[in-house]
# Entry
Amino acid sequence: MANHINNKQRKSKALLKGAVLVALAAIGTAANAQVDRRFISPHEYALPVDFKPFNIFVQYATLQNTRDVWDSGSHKNRSANSSDTMVGLTKYVRLWTPEFSSKVGLAWEVIVPEVGVRDKTARTSTGGMGDPITGFAAWYKPADNWTLGTDLFVSVPVGDKAVGGGDRWDVLGSIFWDAQFDKVNYVGNFGYHFNGDSVTGSRPADYWHLNNRLGYRATGLLEPYIGLDYQNNQSVNGNPGGHETAAVFGVMFHTYDHSSIAVHYSKGIEGSNAPVSNNLNVKFAYVF
# Structure
């Protein structure tokens, strides 16, 4: 009887660990799961130059329901375990113009992830703070309606071990752009994620991702948008690489001059060796 209980507990922990790995990818700290930075919305990188210093507070939230996985033949199959993952990203940004040039903008960011995972198959759950992420961004405007920039961040391994924190240092960066054509906004980024060595000696797969959003300012309040995301995970430790393409449909609410709310749904439409994206994303931004 005792052996039966121990085996059941071990199976439950293994299933929950798999669900936690999906949660980690939602904050960009593990590969082989949903596309990184899928939470971006229109005007994500609509940044100014030649301005007085100011601050931005952003709260992202993602709810991912994992029921299916892509196999190596790009077929969708039922996952061995079903899970719900909630990831919150609380971000503070300080922006300023450097003394050496008024045509360039700089920013420092700190992002604190909050992770909660409920494994519906094993009927277990866990949660905690993921590894904080911090770094800098720089940009310029080649034209009044264009912004081009880059960012570089590092994740600091001090998060809760229950959600994979405290394990390794990761480096992540991107090249980003934003363009405004009358009522149409196009925003995107191309990013790469370098995983550090785990304390166990293993090393997760590195990956790159591409995110695109196209919005139309229908009214002063509403801006519907669509998007297309892609992530490619490299092979590592004898495990095959994988990829996924996901479609995005959402709407942005321009509530006040200094704040906005964006909501979109992301659904995996093609992939291999990865869980199928099936998530709702919410973003609240406030400028002060």
